[in-house]
């Protein structure tokens, strides 16, 4: 049965109920409806419709927000622990908020046109929202955003009205959830790849087979021809910055005398300073000169000290 703003229901005898609104009241009212959003640009992610993946994502996201290491236990236990840490951190945020307010009030009274006021207003509003959400449980807000946005199909404005937050916060939270899920799965895939590589190497070791790069007949000629150990590691199948220790061990066992560390490329301080003055970053200087970024930084510092 459809109900109207101005209506009365008769129940028999002298019994009846009404909304208490007459037509004169209704004529002065504003009507607002919230419809479901139409077709979205991006498809619905798997974690929005899979409860197991959603628990995993919320636990990882809250741990990242609380800046703690992944906990031990089920996803729900990790979720509760991270949420408790966020609540404890609210005391520190409240202290910071008091300091900002103590700076804002006298500055507002003495110099209303100071541009610093706008910066303080943004910081105070952001910190106040964070404290309010984390004190009641930030996980509830996250779950509500996912539910209203994906399960009910509301847009960011409708979700914000339901949770009493602002639409930009809804959109920003969804973006960070997407980003967290992608990074988490990239780390998981890399961890699985490394675990599989270690397992294969151990199986080869038990079978008496050499590991990748452990064949001295292929390594020694390359080293004697002048190739560096990192270049040999890449040539025999290792990734960058890995496999160097096994290459050195294989060369020593083969009786090859390793070149001294002085053979490693160095960069002239004057050259490093010249590139730095051209606007290059330390990482770019390092790639151009074939050294590490730390070596490039040290060379620039040395050149500046010599000029002083």
Kindly describe this structure.
This protein is an all-alpha fold. It has three domains: 48-186, no CATH class; 210-262; 269-307, no CATH class. Helices cover 64% and strands 3% of the residues. It has 13 helices and two strands, in the order ββααααααααααααα. The chain has helices at residues 23-27, 51-66, 75-110, 116-136, 138-151, 156-163, 167-206, 216-224, 229-235, 244-253, 269-277, 282-289, 293-307, and strands at 8-12, 15-18. Strands 1-2 form a two-stranded antiparallel sheet. A hairpin with a 2-residue loop joins strand 1 and strand 2 (15-18). Helix 5 (138-151) packs antiparallel against helix 6 (156-163). It is elongated and about 110 Å long.
Helices and strands in order, then pairings?
Blueprint: E1 8-12, E2 15-18, H1 23-27, H2 51-66, H3 75-110, H4 116-136, H5 138-151, H6 156-163, H7 167-206, H8 216-224, H9 229-235, H10 244-253, H11 269-277, H12 282-289, H13 293-307
Antiparallel strand pairs: 1-2
Helix pairs in contact: 2-3, 2-7, 3-4, 4-5, 5-6, 6-7, 11-13, 12-13
Total count of strands = 2
The separation of the N and C termini measures: 88 Å
- Alpha-beta classification: mainly alpha
Order of strands, main sheet, comes to 1-2
String of helices and strands: EEHHHHHHHHHHHHH
Number of helices: 13
Strand content: under 5%
Shape: elongated
The Cα radius of gyration reads 32 Å
Number of spatially distinct domains = 3
Q: What portion of residues is helical?
A: 55-70%
Mean pLDDT: 82
Low-pLDDT sequence parts: none
Largest sheet: 2 strands, antiparallel
